[in-house]
Design brief:
Layout (H helix, E strand, L loop, with lengths): L1 H7 L2 E12 L5 E12 L13 E4 L8 E4 L9 E4 L5 H16 L7
Antiparallel strand pairs: 1-2, 2-5, 3-4
């Protein structure tokens, strides 16, 4: 039932792992994980055809540039801040990232 309601109103729920926001006083908050309610692209939009992006001219003719269509606002309609992972989990993730950066199994070519 929730899925049908969201589809009828062109809404979707997304999880952002590193959302950065600002408080009322301009102080940055984040990066924090959030669950956000977003509006999906209009399937009958004549500009983007329901994809949400529009190809436009870029600085180089071989590389097209994509802009967001007006029918898909990026900012969420509502969001819920999720709890931060505990400190021991963050340290483990950072150690894993460092290990991946230093050691590689790929050949150099």
């Amino acid at each position: 039932m929730i899925r049908r309601t969201l589809a009828r109103h062109r809404l979707t729920v997304r999880c952002w792992t590193g959302w950065i926001s600002t408080s009322r006083w301009g102080r940055p908050i984040g990066p924090r994980p959030i669950l956000a309610l977003h509006r999906t692209p209009d399937p009958h939009c004549p500009t983007c055809g329901g994809t949400g992006t529009v190809m436009c001219a870029g600085p180089y003719p071989d590389e097209p540039d994509f802009d967001d269509c007006d029918c898909t606002p990026f900012l969420p309609l509502a969001w819920i801040w999720l709890p931060k992972p505990p400190g021991w989990a963050q340290q483990r993730l950072q150690a894993r990232r460092i290990r991946r950066a230093v050691y590689s199994d790929e050949p150099p070519f």
